[in-house]
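Figure 6 in text form: structure in, sequence out.
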């Protein structure tokens, strides 16, 4: 490997760094403001200098090879040195785009409030949010942070619990007045349930909550948790909802509060390639700090 030539190839190194983080040439091209052909040409030139394949295509994007990881670390060190040269201001060093995948409930109630505040502190920081409720992707996903329900098992990644919550049953007072208030779990069979489409439910912890209930008719089933909330508010049935979303809502009351509550946890997954990125670290800390405030917001001020 020609180390001197490698260090002098700054455009190629920064392009490779971006592809390694995002997992796609097209995403890297958009981020860098260049075209796909330029990205491909720079990566090819870099591989010629090193004498090794640095990236391999997988079903979900481009994966870093063992030789590529060594070059990635060099590129990252250069990036950090350049950030220090540009400014000694820590806030100015937090820049670029951070891509986050998270379920809708986490995105709306936790991520967006936290990210709006952190973006005001770091004007050069861009945030992209992708909402989905699924297991963590096993391979390079093009995301810097993934928020998932339940403990993930992902190679070459760091994971940490962010927020414990409970899935509980809720309805409106009007619905209960019209259809009766169940006093036992078995009486739920007489009611409709607003929850996920069972055939498309791929998250074990969310499926386990459903397994604890008796067979209920479907109310309005959806892959979107906000549809569950709206359906419940409109009297379409009883909703199985996250407590941090439903408890503060004045239009809902808990059903069988003492008899049914399914515990769940949001976990964060940070890919190895993103762990030392200052922008990713800043965003993670903002999400973590905001998540710690959710229990107080959920239950209101403590009674002394």
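Output sequence:
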């Amino acid at each position: 490997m020609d180390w001197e030539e490698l260090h002098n190839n700054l455009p190629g190194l920064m392009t490779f760094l971006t592809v390694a983080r995002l997992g796609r040439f097209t995403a890297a091209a958009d981020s860098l403001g260049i075209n796909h052909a330029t990205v491909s040409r720079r990566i090819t030139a870099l591989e010629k200098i090193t004498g090794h394949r640095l990236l391999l295509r997988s079903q979900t994007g481009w994966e870093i090879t063992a030789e590529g990881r060594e070059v990635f670390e060099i590129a990252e060190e250069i990036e950090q040195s350049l950030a220090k040269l540009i400014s000694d201001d820590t806030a100015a060093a937090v820049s670029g785009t951070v891509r986050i995948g998270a379920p809708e409930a986490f995105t709306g109630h936790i991520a967006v409030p936290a990210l709006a505040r952190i973006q005001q502190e770091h004007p050069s920081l861009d945030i992209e949010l992708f909402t989905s409720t699924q297991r963590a992707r096993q391979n390079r996903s093009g995301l810097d942070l993934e928020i998932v329900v339940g403990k993930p098992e992902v190679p070459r990644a760091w994971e940490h619990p962010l927020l414990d919550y409970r899935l509980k049953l809720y309805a409106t007072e009007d619905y209960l007045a019209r259809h009766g208030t169940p006093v036992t779990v078995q009486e739920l069979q007489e009611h409709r349930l607003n929850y996920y489409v069972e055939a498309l439910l791929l998250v074990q912890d969310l499926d386990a909550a459903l397994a604890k209930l008796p067979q209920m008719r479907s109310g309005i089933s959806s892959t979107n948790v906000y549809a569950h909330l709206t359906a419940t508010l409109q009297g379409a049935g009883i909703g199985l909802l996250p407590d941090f979303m439903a408890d503060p809502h004045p239009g809902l009351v808990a059903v069988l509060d003492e008899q049914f509550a399914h515990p769940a946890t949001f976990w964060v997954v940070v890919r190895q390639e993103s762990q030392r990125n200052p922008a990713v670290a800043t965003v993670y800390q903002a999400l973590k700090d905001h998540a710690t405030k959710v229990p107080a917001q959920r239950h209101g001020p403590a009674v002394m």
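Caption detail: The two ends are 67 Å apart (CA to CA).
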